[in-house]
Every structure is written in structure tokens, then in C-alpha cells.
């Protein structure tokens, strides 16, 4: 199988472009199901959609590889041309390497963030539920998640904010100083909203969280936070110091006109949503400083320490070995057939009524040999050379007539 991916991220695609290919969990599920059913060369697909990136990973049958960016745009009903210059495509082990870095937070705008590993894990879970994840995708994403967990537990990434919410609080403290006593309104009670509310509360803010009426009794509000109905958010915002919005709404939660209609609009407005919650023009209101996920993380990334590189290299090597072993299975079966045939043709063997016993003995021997392949660098090409050697008579060339021109097509996941 071949691996290929295309992705949009904050480095090449501005937020105005990324939000056009940003999807909810339900949307992700519908897309991977559609792609798996309608793209004939695709054996497995997983879609990651976060605030910073949208990436489609495909495992494909041997042959010409599809363009994942075009596949995604076609499934989402978007023209590909506006995105063509922003998509980055990687294949084989380069794609695998990129995914381990993504899961570890090394490609995040908020460098080293903790939430991305959960988002990567959620992506494969959604694909699995839609029967869109094949063994290659399952193993690739399991490798990336395992590598990310090892990085988080074994390497201490100093002075790195752990999430976009943490970065927001850091920026607010840098711009506004001590946050104790500041009034903050958080719109959105999802994972990001709750995290942001909790961090603002820990920083000393008086935090109010909005709740939609149909969610009352179904949500958890961080300790110490007040609540207000979503419909009353503007009343709560008038006179507040901080607005932070983090919802999955397809519409703006706060517009420029909304802020202009307030006697005292918030001094800082933080938009952690993709698509954006706060109308971009709201930042033009006098006295309002607007930040989004791009402007919050516009700092240079630190260099990952050598321990991180060692962890990623270890997990990627295991993945490569798994791929080699998987691609070797057809060669192993061919090896069994050719060894059996050689044994049965041997003059020392005598009667040919022992085929079943011979096949069993050869099969067991080859399986025992193959048991060590996962821990070595033996590739499908090595097995192919071994098979050809066995089919060579008296040290000569392989018997092409006996083999009927058979040349097993093997390709490693590289």
C-alpha cells in the first residue's frame, strides 16, 4: 500500500482560506465515508480538521497516486484552484514523519500544544466508525499517537504554552498585566471554551460562561464561573474586559456592529474558533484589540531537543518494519510454494505422495523465519532475491519458463 497526504496549515494558508475547509466532527465523518466509497483507488482515509490545519491522509492501491487535496475539495464541494498553492503534499515515510510531528505538537502554531494528540486520535476514531480506516491508516495513526505520548511523558518542553487557550491567557497577561479582578466572558462551553474559562479563572478573572438554552443540564461549567444564557451574551459583554469565543458555530457569535452598540465594549477580544466566531472587522472598533489563532501564535518555534528526535525516529523505524513485514507476506507465500516444489522435485525425496506433509513442514519453517522480520531490516526486496535464488537451478539463471514470467510486485511503505 502507498501513503499520501495533503494538508493546509497556518504556515501557507491564511485563516480566511483554512476556514473554508474546516469541518465539525460530523462533517469529518461524512467526508471520510464519502471519499472511501467514491474514490476507487483509496483503501483507507483519515481527515484531521483543527484550528491550525486540515489534512487528508490516504492509503492507496499500487499505481498512480491521487492528489489528496483534489480529493478533499471534490468531496467537500469546493473548487480546488483557490487552494492549490496552499496545499502541501507528502508521501511515504515523509508523510508518516509529518504526522508524528503533528501529533507531538511540533507542527502546531502553539508549539508543543497538548490538545493536538487528542485531535489526531479522534480523527482515526471517526474514520474507524465510518469504516474508512484500513490497517495501514490504523497502524500509521497508532504510531503517531504512541510517539506523541512518549514525547509528552519523557521530554520536558520548557516554557511552552500547552494550548491555544493557554497562549491566549499568556498574551492577555503580557498586554494587560495582572488579570486579577478582570471581567471575562467566554462564549462556548466545548472543550476549548471550558479550558479557556478555567485558565482565566486561575489567573484571577471573574469569568462568565455562556450556555445555550438547549444545553442546560448537559454541560459542565468550570468551578467558580458564572453562567449566562447565550442569548444574553451582549448584556454580559458590555463592561467586560475580555471577550473569548470558542464555538463550532458556522456564524459569527459577535460582529462589529454588536461591539459598536455597547457603551463599553471589551478591551480584548480573543477568537479561538475556525471558522471564526468574531467578525474580523470587530478589531477596527476603537479600543478593541482582536486576536485570532494566527495572531496568537505568531512567534518562532523553538528547536526540538535531541530526545524528541530519538523518540520519533524509534517509532518511525517500527512503522517502517511493520510496513516491510506486511508487504513481505505475499513474498513469503511464494517462498513457501517454491521451496515445496524444490523439495518434491529432489531425487532424494522419492515418492510424491507426501505433498501435504511437505507443505506443512515448509510452511512452518518459513513462518518461524518470518517471525524475526519485524525486528530486522529485511525488506520485501530481500525476500524476492531469496525466492529467485531458490528458483535457480544449478547456480544458473531463474527458470523463467517454469515461473511463467512471474515477477511478484512488491512495494514497501516508504
Write the layout of secondary structure elements.
Blueprint: E1 2-9, H1 15-18, H2 25-38, E2 42-49, E3 53-60, H3 68-76, E4 88-91, H4 92-103, H5 115-129, H6 135-154, H7 164-176, E5 183-187, H8 191-202, E6 206-211, E7 226-229, H9 233-237, E8 242-245, H10 256-260, E9 268-271, E10 289-291, H11 293-296, H12 306-345, H13 355-370, H14 380-390, H15 400-403
Helix pairs in contact: 2-5, 4-6, 5-6, 6-12, 7-8, 12-13, 12-14
Describe, in short, the structure shown.
With 414 residues, the chain is α/β, with parallel strands linked by helices. The protein has helices at residues 15-18, 25-38, 68-76, 92-103, 115-129, 135-154, 164-176, 191-202, 233-237, 256-260, 293-296, 306-345, 355-370, 380-390, 400-403; strands at 2-9, 42-49, 53-60, 88-91, 183-187, 206-211, 226-229, 242-245, 268-271, 289-291.
